[in-house]
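Lab meeting, item 3. Inverse folding demo.
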């Protein structure tokens, strides 16, 4: 990552320029904002949490979340587009699980910490 030099117009303290120079890039911020936006929906948050613990098909996700299959499919598409989950085909069935990324792992742990819940055994 290249750090670009930024000279702020007002110098309130010596840290201002350094903080501005180390600010994450727009691509990073956009990816995080998109992930957080998707998890701001309670249905997607429940589906995401479930898929952090298992790989499941649409029918089972719908049953576990008490939602219709079309509604679950819609939420899965948004979560997948945000890079939060992945899909694998097994025969005629698609199975979904949380993506194996550092951001997903941290989001998973943050959700459990905030909600004061732990991973099922």
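The presenter then showed the designed sequence:
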């Amino acid at each position: 990552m290249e750090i670009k030099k930024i000279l702020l117009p007002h110098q309130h303290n010596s840290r201002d320029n350094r903080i501005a120079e180390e600010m994450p890039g727009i691509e990073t911020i956009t990816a995080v904002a998109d992930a957080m936006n998707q998890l701001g929906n309670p249905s997607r948050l429940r589906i995401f949490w479930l898929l952090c613990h298992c790989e499941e098909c649409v029918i089972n996700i719908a049953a576990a979340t008490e939602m219709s299959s079309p509604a679950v499919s819609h939420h899965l598409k948004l979560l997948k587009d945000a890079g939060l989950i992945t899909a694998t085909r097994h025969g005629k069935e698609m199975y979904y699980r949380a993506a194996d990324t550092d951001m997903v792992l941290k989001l998973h742990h943050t959700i459990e910490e905030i909600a004061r819940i732990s991973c099922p055994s």
